[in-house]
Amino acid sequence: MERKKKNILELTRYSVEEFRKLDKIPVSVLLDSVRSLNNVGSVMRTADAFRLAEVICCGITGVPPHPELSKTALGADRSVSWRYAPDALSECRRMQQEGWKILVLEQTAGSVGLAEYAVDADSRLLLVLGNEVEGVDQRIVDIADTVLEIPMLGVKHSLNVAVSGGIALHHLAIPHLYASEEN
Questions:
Q1: CA–CA dist 28, 19 (Å, integer)
Q2: How many other CB atoms are found less than 10 A from the CB of residue 62?
Q3: Which of 97, 80, 79, 103 is nearest to 30 (CA)?
Q4: What angle do CA 142, 144, 145 make, to 5 degrees?
Q5: What count of other Cβ atoms lies within 10 Å of the Cβ of residue 74?
Q6: Alpha carbons 28 and 20: distance in angstroms, whole number
Q7: What is each CA distance from 5 to 8, 9, 58, 181, in whole angstroms?
Q8: pLDDT for position 14
Q9: Do 81 and 54 meet the contact criterion of CB atoms below 8 Å apart?
Q10: Is the dihedral of CA 97, 103, 77, 181 positive or negative?
Q11: How confident is residue 173, by pLDDT bands cut at 50, 70 and 90?
Q12: Per the confidence metrics, is the pTM higher than 0.85?
């Protein structure tokens, strides 16, 4: 079996304009005062990879255009639908009233291990990722439909927010990714 790496022309799938017109999976991510523009750009790049509905930047979370964000987004800041909402709690409440299930990625008593969470492909899911130091605002944790946790097996008790977001978003996107391959 030949395993020649693909070149950039073989990897190119869509233009930004074509991507923006595609149906998106019903998963969005809300960044609750994520302070690092590199993390914001990385989450946007992940949102592009999984064709997420949108990225919502709240609180102190930076937004495009910004060179530091663009450095890690690699163009995803132009392809992914994003918006700014000043208050993360209000935005979560509004989306919950619209039928979105609020999923918080945090370490709490009673959290559900990510691998144990059964994704309902018919539900609209909002994954909330928190500040690099403080995590997700406790008031959002309190109203969440589910708190998801990535088990930590080493010395460190947490992962970088963009890394943990990527892991969780992959898990949430899997049912949609396989469904689109079948169509």
A1: 16
A2: 18
A3: 103
A4: 130
A5: 14
A6: 15
A7: 10, 12, 39, 22
A8: 93
A9: yes
A10: negative
A11: very high
A12: yes
